[in-house]
């Protein structure tokens, strides 16, 4: 896996990233740090990737368990250290899983397996952050 991150130039703190799969992502800093607030911050991108990794796992595990899953949203709320390096110290994942006759035990199992075994990103972040998770099921 490879990505290339390039600074967009001296007029700010904007960066562009190209992924090994050929996708482009723009990141920017806060105005008080020289950025223009035109794109997500790099640490927000870390949360985005982690949420995507975990949601992917949850959906895949539920599908493989033959659950009738129709949707999955995850909201991550994170806290960071006050001093450098400002690592994440707490992250809560709240899943809203939509489907028909979903078993709460199956959803809880999928979330647990993602966080304990499959989601490399959340397992890596757990080295510095207290990771918690919760879920709700919406019947359709």
UniProtKB/TrEMBL annotation:
<protein>
    <submittedName>
        <fullName>OsmC family protein</fullName>
    </submittedName>
</protein>
<dbReference type="InterPro" id="IPR015946">
    <property type="entry name" value="KH_dom-like_a/b"/>
</dbReference>
<dbReference type="Pfam" id="PF02566">
    <property type="entry name" value="OsmC"/>
</dbReference>
<dbReference type="InterPro" id="IPR036102">
    <property type="entry name" value="OsmC/Ohrsf"/>
</dbReference>
<dbReference type="InterPro" id="IPR003718">
    <property type="entry name" value="OsmC/Ohr_fam"/>
</dbReference>
